[in-house]
């Protein structure tokens, strides 16, 4: 989904890293071949290091609070696995595209990524940004 989203919004695709733990599904030949086909670099955390999973645990806690428990507490329990999957897809979309994040200056991740990619492209192509190239200094 992350690659599809980046492709859809024409964001930079190179230099991406897939972070995971050392679970067998992430160290399998099939998974690493897939990463290679997509041009992603694997990054596997060290085994038994609880500090490396802190970010993931934090996101899971937000998901449980903002998606799962909120839905159940408002009297609309999930009746099927499909209900949970649909609610999860909606929450991930909201989290990435509309939820403000304090660590990003209170803007959604998609706005932060767009600004970042715009700055990268401006730095790579100064003529397209409207800036005049700096004159060469000859001694």
Overall description:
It is built from six helices and two strands. The chain is 53% helix and 6% strand. The chain is globular and about 55 Å long. Among the domains are: 13-48, no CATH class; 50-110. Helix 4 (54-73) crosses helix 5. The chain has 139 residues and is mostly helical. Mean pLDDT is 80; it is low at 135-139. The protein has helices spanning 2-8, 24-27, 29-38, 54-73, 81-97, 109-124, and strands spanning 17-20, 41-44.
Mean pLDDT: 80
- Helical fraction: 40-55%
Classify the secondary structure makeup into a structural class: mainly alpha
Strands side by side in the biggest sheet:
1-2
E-strand count: 2
Continuous helix count:
6
What string gives the helices and strands in order? HEHHEHHH
How far the N terminus sits from the C terminus, by CA atoms, comes to 53 Å
Low-confidence stretches: 135-139
Shape: globular
